[in-house]
Write a structure and sequence with these properties.
With about 150 residues, this protein is α/β, with parallel strands linked by helices. Helices cover about 40% and strands about 20% of the residues. The protein starts with 8 loop residues before the first strand and ends in a 6-residue tail after the last helix.
Length: about 150
């Protein structure tokens, strides 16, 4: 029922609308040497449709991990998080909130909605790289994830 820790392949859904941050994250993950299948969706409603298999495209496997920005067009990250964690099929997917917001109310609200982690995006590129590598290391090598 559970995937073994130490696995070398991770399916990640990044829900982010900032092209520069998407590009940096893609480059960091490509350089890591770990097989990460990164799917990027820039709109909240499209991300939910994709997760539910309603996007009109070929049905994709459920991601192992969702990385979620809070400020998105359409449905914002808080609404997406709430819907993921309220959906019996999706609620087991770990959701990492990556936000520039340092507001205590945003952090508290995300944890109350079921976020597995809240990370404030650093402005410094080197710090951002360290955080993404730490996320990758933890979820690829330490965490155990459920099978579909």
């Amino acid at each position: 029922m559970w995937r073994n820790s130490g696995r070398k392949n991770l399916d990640v859904l990044l829900i982010e609308d900032n092209p520069a941050q998407i590009l940096v994250l893609q480059e960091i993950l490509e350089e890591s040497g770990v097989a990460i299948n990164l799917r990027v969706i820039e709109d909240g409603e499209a991300a939910l449709a994709d997760l539910r298999g309603q996007s009109g495209q070929v049905k994709r496997d459920r991601p192992d991990l969702v990385m979620l920005d809070l400020n998105l067009p359409g449905k914002d990250g808080r609404q997406i998080l709430k819907e993921i964690k309220a959906d019996h099929e999706l609620q087991v997917i770990p959701v990492i909130v990556l936000s520039s917001s340092q507001a205590d109310e945003d952090i508290l609200q995300c944890y109350r909605l079921g976020a597995n982690c809240y990370i404030i995006k650093p402005v410094d590129l080197d710090e951002f790289i360290k955080i993404i590598r730490a996320i990758e290391s933890f979820w690829c090598h330490s965490a155990r994830l459920p099978k579909e």
